[in-house]
Protein: ATPase AAA
Organism: Pontibacter korlensis
Amino acid sequence: MSKVSCKVLVVDDEEDILMAGKLLLKQHFEVVKTTSDPYKIPSLLQEHNFDVVLLDMNYSIGATSSKEGLHWLKQILQLSPKTTVILMTAYGDIELAVRALKEGATDFVLKPWQNEKLVAILKTACQNRSASVNGKRCAEKAVRENTAYHYDGFIGVSPAMQRVYQTIDKVAGTDANVLILGENGTGKEVAARALHRKSKRANNVFEIVDLGAVSTTLFESELFGHAKGSFTDAKEDRAGRLEAASGGTLFLDEIGNLSLALQAKLLTVLQSRQVIRLGTNKPRPIDIRLICATNMPLYDMVREGTFRQDLLYRVNTVEIHLPPLRERRDDIRLLAEHFLKVYQQKYERPELRLNSETMRRLNDYHWPGNIRELDHAMERAVILCDGNELHPDDFYFAPSEDGQQKQLGLDSLADNDYTLEALEKMMVQKALVKHAGNITHAAKELGITRTALYRRIEKHGL
């Protein structure tokens, strides 16, 4: 997409966070400023009239109370009442983040953030800010009105997607538990957000918990909360993620990754709709609408004894199956043209076109990474192509399981280009391709830090 007409200020005392934030956000927003000194906030607000401030909650060395974040939240809202404030917080600050929401913050993001989620939250904040100033609905509504094939975040006219839309419309207004099944990159979180936006809880919190990222040892503390002193680092009472979601929607992503022991604990809470914080014996009621998602074959896992049948029955009152891109080929052209328009504007290359051979190759490709892979493939092609047409050589086509698909584009270097810089660029590109743009995984593969990878991305203009 073209850059959003929005001014964003990022405030954090860690330079790595500021660098990563600026590199990411400047691709999506017209103005992005950063500062490690919160005392500069008043002058920066006066100078730039920021639409959104992304504000860390702690600044002093070793501070965990988040009092500083609450102080600067109040200062920002006093100096610029129309500015939207989004807090950055660690898991342990969630209870304070909920308090901050009551005091005027719009949302909060967890550190380390996920790039797509952070950008989505900031874009929503900018759109809502624009709507309040101009008396218009957010840009998403305009897209829906002018694009016949756009459905609440989805693009597609295939019969498979029409069935998905119909199911979402039928179930969204209820509080029925929903299980979303589909491969990586098919849009499971998009479907969950569509269900939430169309529900009676749309004005309340949409809480995402990536169960694949929560360690076994921290599972109960993160999801159920804990009392002060319940374990070594429990320095204060803290609400868990389920309590934070009360009144809204709880989205449990990657539920298939839970061990049997953790499945049993989760099932108990879902059945009773009560949580008991670690270190206490007092049950606390929760009021949530539950949506779960996974790319794993839960029914096979039930037969193998690795997933509890009673938990499956608890979470799948309604199932939504998101088809892989190879099963909705009618949508590939629509998606490719959509992403091309996005990156034509972003990289100021309005002359670019898809030729017929390229479109044929895109249609024939098996897209193991689904829509996410197509999105990243189109962006890379727009960046790397030399002429006014996108050719197959501008794309990377991973080999299929039978080995028939050829690898093009990034698989080779020019015969006379064996410099270390060219090799470094190629390896960074290939790591990003392999991990569908996931910075954390790509950095791990390359054996460097996220910050070092961000520097190389900026260095090579990727």
Notes: Residues 135-148, 402-416 have pLDDT under 50 and may be disordered. The CA atoms of residues 96 and 102 lie 10 Å apart. The radius of gyration is 23 Å.
